[in-house]
């Protein structure tokens, strides 16, 4: 099996193992405008935190997520969720950053439930 070539971002970040005591930083607060931020925890709301940071996070929020979770686990999350919740543009960005196979991302983007949503017209 061929090994994936490491991007500069891969070389700069260690593979982190998040603990149960991960504190959510204030930089994430704007992403949870519709929630009581004080009640959001990493352990209980991990998928929600990841999805919001991937879709709408600032550079600081993305750096925090990558340091907290590590690119390997982030890649596994993306594969398990098939890029749901991300626009095609965002998905292609994460494909490059995390080294997700291009064919996999292309297949996700062709799924019928995605194509309907992605082709909607915004007035």
Folded structure, characterized:
There is one protein chain. The protein has 2 domains: 27-69, no CATH class; 70-123, no CATH class. The radius of gyration is 15 Å and the shape is globular. It is mostly helical and 123 residues long. The protein contains 7 helices and no strands.
Question: Any descriptors?
Answer:
123 residues, mainly alpha, 7 helices, globular
User: What is the structural class?
Assistant: mainly alpha
What is the strand tally?
Answer: 0
Alpha plus pi helix count: 7
The end-to-end distance, rounded to whole angstroms, is 47 Å
Could you tell me the strand content as a percent range? under 5%
Task: Tell me the major beta sheet.
Answer: none
Level of helix content?
55-70%
Identify low-pLDDT runs. Answer: 7-15
Rg result:
15 Å
List the helices and strands and how they pair.
Blueprint: H1 8-12, H2 42-56, H3 59-69, H4 71-81, H5 88-98, H6 102-110, H7 112-118
